[in-house]
Every structure is written in structure tokens, then in C-alpha cells.
Amino acid sequence: MSSGRTIVVGITGGIAAYKAVNVVRAFVLRGDSVHVVATPAALRFVGKPTLEAISRNPVHTDLYEGVAEVRHVAIGQSADLIVVAPATANTIAKLAAGLADDLLGNAILASTAPLVIAPAMHTEMWNNAATVANVATLRSRGVIVVGPGVGQLTGSDTGAGRMEEPDTIVAAALVALDAADLSVGRRSDLAGKHVVITAGGTREPLDPVRFLGNRSSGKQGVALAQAALARGARVTLISANLEVAAPASADVRLVGTALELQAAVTDAAAGADAVIMAAAVADYRPAAVRADKIKKDDTGDTLLLELIRNPDILAGLAAAGQPGQVLIGFAAETEPDADRLLALGRTKMARKGCDFLVLNRVGWTEGFASDRNEITVLDRSGDIVCEASGTKMSVAGRILDLIA
Ligand code: C5P
């Protein structure tokens, strides 16, 4: 399954480049989309076909290819994380100086993603005053330096300078990614605030064993809860049949149906600073819940279900209108046309009366189960106040920026 993240792996010209293949492979097996940018020197150590086969993407090397699509900038901007493994002394020096004389240098300068480097060189080069100063400069800018390890080097000698093992590099990179995800936006800017978030999808029982439900996984709502907690908020998470774990430090209230969600959110919303209705709430529920399992023998070839409208919880909260409370609704639509999608969002905003409406497209493959999301946020007057795409965690950060 796709993680929804784009990872750029920069490979530079050291013998450890052959081990970088395993770094690429580990990210691919985790479901990340991996784009290798190799320096020309790296390709003298490991073949482009190997890197393309393992990364499942074209490998780029040349600054002067793909100029029309401004590739050197696009690669950097698309990255959720950049890992340079191995990072030679020469590459480290260029990074410290901010040089961009190759595709990798350009991609790194054009990126705001976390940068993880795994140095690999001989001990003397690692201990050289120039390298020591360059590494210190990079660390001071927040670059994460993994290793090098101490041990057998390329020749018969041993010492500091071995590139860290691929799984150690990948583990450090994942920590960097999580930290970056959680710190999207400003830290502690929700301290002392109470944020209520609904997540998941309601299930409306038909009989003791069946329900009418939807495909919402709850990932976006849980990401909002994690991001709000990371920014210092007290979070009440109204959890409707989540497919993912709720954060341990949230106050979690479990609900099943729309009516249960309504009772829980109405209770929690009293005095809350913000309410975010990320849950997919069933618009209708069965008029009667059968006490026994519905049987084919009793119903024949067709079965008609009578459904009744559920209350619109979001519109109800908006009508109740607690002063100073920020109310955010979601609108998941299947409309493929961007203009018509926006028009639907504006109509819905007028009907719901919330402060912000987060518009996103859903379908058989988009939206629900994915780790990524693409949103447009409208304010009360229907104006676009935010457009964001990326991991659900990074999108959560942008939504919380509106509250903060
Ligand atoms: O009307 P629609 O279902 O498209 O609206 C979606 C938004 O309204 C979501 O924020 C959802 O949580 C909320 N909603 C609600 N009560 C309903 C249906 C949806 O609060 N019965």
C-alpha cells in the first residue's frame, strides 16, 4: 500500500553507493514513492538500470535534461524527505557551501523537506578539519547526519567512515519524517486550547449483524488529532469505527451511529475552542432496526429498505453558534471537474454555516483509505483560504493553521 510520501534518494560517488540500493529498496517496500537522483560519479559505482528497477522510477542525473519541466526545482519541491547516501566529503562540502552545480545540489536547494545524509569516506577525510567544519555547518542548519560507522573500510584498513547500514539510515530518516510531520505549522500555538475532532465513519445498523456504512478510514481525523496534540491542544476525539489507532493522549469517545456521534460531539463541543467534523456521517439510517437477522427466505429476490434522514450535526452546531468557537466541516465529493467541485463546496458552505469547509475529492481510489490528501478550504464567503496536498499529517497542519 502506498504511504503517500515522496522520498528523494541522492546517491553520490563513493563505493558505498552499492549499499544505497538497499536504502532505496527499503523505502519502496514501505510503500514510499522513491526518486533517485544520482551524481555522474555515483553511476560509475552502481548502474542506472539497477537503480531504476529497484526504485521503480526513472533515475535522473543530468541538470540539463527535463529543463522544460524545470526538473531541478520540481524534484526538490515534490520531496517529503531527501536522503543522501552515501554522502561523500565532496558532496558534504558542496552542501555546506550551498553549491548547485549538479541536479542533486539543485534539488536540495529547492527543497524545504528534511535532509538526512549518511557520510561515507576514509577516516582521514572524515577527520579532516574541512570536513569537520562542513558537517558542523550542516548540523547547525538542521541536517540530520547518520553515522558514519566505525569498521572495515574499502581497503584493508579500518576506522571511522563506513556508511551506516541501510536499515539504520532508513530508521533515522523515518524519525526525521515523523518529526517534520508533527511540527508542520508553529509549535505550541494551540496550547491551552480544547479541540474536538470527529473521525471515521458512522455505521447505521440494519439488524444485529449488518450495517450501512462508508469507506472513511479515519486517517485524516486521527492526523488532525495528532497534529493538534503536538501543538499543545487538549483533544477530544470522537471516534467512529476507526481503522487506525487513536493517539493515546487524546480523550477518546467511541461512537457507532450518527445519533451517537451527535450526542458525543454536542456534549464535548460545549466550551471547546474548535470543532472539526472530519467524520463521514451517514445522511440516512434505517427507519427500524430489526431485532433478528434479515433472512433471504422472508424477503425474496428484492429487499426494500426504508431509511430516514439523520440530523445534520454540523449545521446544528453552527446554528447553536458558540461565540469564539471555530467550526470546521468537511465536504468529500466525487465530482471530477475542479470548477464544479468548488461550486458544490460553496453551496454546501452556505447550507452548513460553519467557519471553514475543507473540500476534497473522494472516489474508488482517492481520499478515504489513502495516506495522502488534496484539499481546498473555503471560508464563510466561499473564498479559497488554503489549498494543500501531501500526507494527511501535513494537510492536518495546514487546517490547524486556520484555527491557530
Ligand atoms: O452533507 P455532507 O455529508 O456532504 O457534509 C459533510 C460534513 O457535514 C462533514 O463535516 C460531516 O462530518 C458533516 N455531517 C454532519 N451530519 C450529517 C452529515 C454530515 O455533521 N448528518
UniProtKB/TrEMBL annotation:
According to UniProt, this protein's pathway is: Cofactor biosynthesis; coenzyme A biosynthesis; CoA from (R)-pantothenate: step 3/5; Cofactor biosynthesis; coenzyme A biosynthesis; CoA from (R)-pantothenate: step 2/5
Entry cofactor note text?
Binds 1 FMN per subunit.
Keyword presence, Signal:
no
The record's listing under InterPro entries reads: CoaB-like_sf, CoaBC, DNA/pantothenate-metab_flavo_C, Flavin_trans-like, Flavoprotein
Region Phosphopantothenate--cysteine ligase: what ranges? 195-404
Q: Which cofactor does it need?
A: FMN; Mg(2+)
Q: Does the keyword Metal-binding apply?
A: yes
Tell me, what is one Gene Ontology molecular-function annotation carried by this entry? phosphopantothenoylcysteine decarboxylase activity
Q: Which SUPFAM superfamilies match?
A: CoaB-like (SSF102645), Homo-oligomeric flavin-containing Cys decarboxylases, HFCD (SSF52507)
- Looking at the record, the residues that make up the DNA/pantothenate metabolism flavoprotein C-terminal domain are 190-403
- Family assignment? In the N-terminal section; belongs to the HFCD (homo-oligomeric flavin containing Cys decarboxylase) superfamily. In the C-terminal section; belongs to the PPC synthetase family.
Q: What's this chain's function?
A: Catalyzes two steps in the biosynthesis of coenzyme A. In the first step cysteine is conjugated to 4'-phosphopantothenate to form 4-phosphopantothenoylcysteine, in the latter compound is decarboxylated to form 4'-phosphopantotheine.
**Which PANTHER family did the record assign?**
HOMO-OLIGOMERIC FLAVIN CONTAINING CYS DECARBOXYLASE FAMILY, PHOSPHOPANTOTHENOYLCYSTEINE DECARBOXYLASE
What's the protein called, per UniProt? Answer: Coenzyme A biosynthesis bifunctional protein CoaBC
Q: Which gene encodes it?
A: coaBC
